[in-house]
Design goal:
Layout (H helix, E strand, L loop, with lengths): L3 H30 L3 H27 L19 H28 L3 H31 L6 H18 L6
Helix pairs in contact: 1-2, 1-3, 2-5, 3-4, 4-5
Length: about 170
């Protein structure tokens, strides 16, 4: 049995994961419109991954006799200044998600909710990986530069990163 307070907090996390899915979907569309197919494929896969994160919490709440609520999701931005600023926003959002997960872990310990604590450990590891991945992409963008001639190389680098990540996941989303 899960406490009402923890259930409410996990439903808040569902909303945050849902927003991330929509944000990355919007970013993917912007990239495709800019001719950045590799970046678009990467962000579409990220969008799918965030939706899976949301559904994982739905399932967990059902397992522990809680109630998952489908969130109202605010429309994300549709336009972005540049590829660099787009990935800076992705990185900032992943940091926000990490902070939220860490707060949930702390709350689960305060409530002696070992089941939720155990469940959240997967998210702790996932967020560490997500932040590292986004830093890698930003590092590559800084090295290549983000001028018009550099966009081709940025797109190819992100496409390669996407292919590696998809292969590591067993080929899903490639």
């Amino acid at each position: 049995m899960i406490s009402d307070k923890m259930q409410k907090e996990l439903n808040g996390q569902i909303a945050l994961e849902g927003y991330a899915s929509y944000l990355y979907l919007s970013m993917a569309s912007w990239c495709r419109h800019q001719g950045l197919e590799g970046c678009a494929r990467f962000l579409y896969r990220q969008s799918d991954e965030e939706r899976m994160h949301m559904l994982k919490i739905f399932d967990y709440l059902d397992e522990v006799d809680g109630r998952a609520l489908a969130p109202a999701i605010k429309q994300p931005p549709q336009d972005f200044e540049s590829v660099r600023s787009l990935f800076e926003q992705v990185y900032a959002h992943e940091q926000k998600v990490s902070t939220s997960i860490n707060k949930l872990v702390t709350k689960s310990l305060k409530e002696d909710d070992h089941s939720t604590y155990n469940f959240l450990q997967w998210y702790v590891e996932e967020q560490r990986e997500e932040e590292a991945l986004m830093r890698t992409i930003l590092d590559k963008i800084r090295l290549i530069g983000d001028g018009p001639q550099s966009l081709y190389y940025i797109d190819k680098e992100v496409e390669a990163i996407n292919a590696q990540a998809a292969a590591a996941e067993g080929g899903q989303g490639a």
